[in-house]
Amino acid sequence: MEFNPRSIAIYSVGLLGGSIGAGLKASGYNGKIIGLSSEASIRIALSLGIIDDGKGYDDFEEIATTVDCIFLCSPIMTIIETIKKLGKMRLPDGLVITDVGSTKSEIVSCARNVLPSNVEFIGGHPMAGSEKSGAGASDPFLFQNAMYFLAPVDNATGSRSGSFASFIERFLGCRTVIIDPVEHDAIVAAVSHVPHILSVALVNLARQVEDARPGTLKMAAGGFRDMTRIASAPYSMWHDILATNKKAIAPLIDSYIAILKEMKSSLAADKLEASFRAAAETRSEIPQSNKGFIRPQFDILVVAKDQPGIIAEMSGALARVNINIKDIEVLKVREGEAGTIRMAFESRETADNAISVLTSLGLTARERD
Q1: Are strands 32-36 and 53-55 parallel, antiparallel or unpaired?
Q2: Mean pLDDT of all residues in the chain?
């Protein structure tokens, strides 16, 4: 079944909700977008032109019973409570409800249990964000090339999860993957949630050493900062994520403790080489771009002098031969990286062509290992 909504409601017009509205508008969606949020957020969203109409949360039932699609963009616990409210409403046939929560099992389970059979719930998790927040930080390009998990309640014949995926890929520019909610939570526990907990633990360990040996933190270099950057995120943002994924996180922490114990024994016996070798081999399997989970992007490294206009010169030269840069990064910390700028492209052929163009400018460029 096709998904072609004439009207979309965005519940909570903050960074993600606002960016969904902004992305839809920027890419030519011609249906009506209604925001439900605080008065201040609605005022900002209307001024930015990312919604067509704005309502307060008290008007939710009125809006929910008239639109074709609802994006739930609040924190996870609020999403679950909102789904329960929807379950008590007389919802229109064919309504598609989705969300942007970072965990999926509890959300999808709630939707399966309380929503009527005449509507379809498709859980969503866009792997995108910003250090900024609120409607004022809305970015029409926030989801471009970002991975966007979809975990439908029912992926059987007749489900619109496939056409919904095509819709958001078209209008938000994301890269979708349809996944079982339990599988999703197991994956993000391993590559996101547990690493965050470990980052917090590592910083707290450094704090203990700092207290015993003042000056320790001043010695922390790029590697330590890279490993612990995510520890700066506020607990208020992480509470709901961790609380709704305990089943997947706790066993992985046990496994990590077991690995540390093994490595402690190997350290005493001077037999850590195998662990280092295995880690290096596994890490080489990770896609070079964190936006390329399903369709990996191809990185090149460029050695360029730090001078005004150098990035413009490079991007201009590539644009003239119709080469699109999917991602670009100035490498501030370059431990083991022989380059100052990283560029990502959609295919190896495009990356090779980019290397040729940049080399013709007198720059040194190569594929990233």
Answers
A1: parallel
A2: 90
Task: State the Cα–Cα distance between residues 100 and 73, nearest whole angstrom.
Answer: 6
Give the three-state DSSP class for 67.
Answer: coil
**In whole angstroms, what is the distance from residue 171 CA to residue 231 CA?**
33
Residue 130 has pLDDT above 80, yes or no: no
What's the confidence (pLDDT) of residue 1? 67
The tokens describing 190, both together, are: 């391993």
Same domain as 14, residue 137: yes
Q: How far is CA 309 from the centre of its chain?
A: 30
Distances (CA, A) of 256 to 98, 250, 252, 253: 34, 10, 6, 5
293 lies in some domain? no
User: How far is it, in rounded angstroms, from Cα 330 to Cα 327?
Assistant: 11
CA atoms within 13 A on the CB side of 151: 25
Q: Per-residue confidence at 346, pLDDT binned at 50, 70, 90? A: confident
What's the total number of domains in the chain?
Answer: 3
- pLDDT, one tens digit per residue, over 255-305 is 999 999 999 999 999 999 999 999 999 988 876 555 444 456 788 989 887
Residue range(s) defining the domain that contains residue 227: 184-283
Pair 57, 135 in one domain: yes
* DSSP assignment string, 18-32: HHHHHHHHHTT--SE
- Which of 147, 179, 211 is a domain's end point? 179
Inside any domain, residue 152: yes
List the one residue out of 145, 135, 150, 165 whose CA is nearest residue 19.
135
Helix (H) or strand (E) run with residue 122 in it? strand 120-126
Enter the pTM of the model: 0.78
Q: Does residue 121 fall inside a structural domain? A: yes
In this structure, is residue 288 part of a structural domain? no
Asked if 12 and 79 count as a contact pair (C-beta separation under 8 A), the reply is no
113 with 169, same domain: the answer is yes
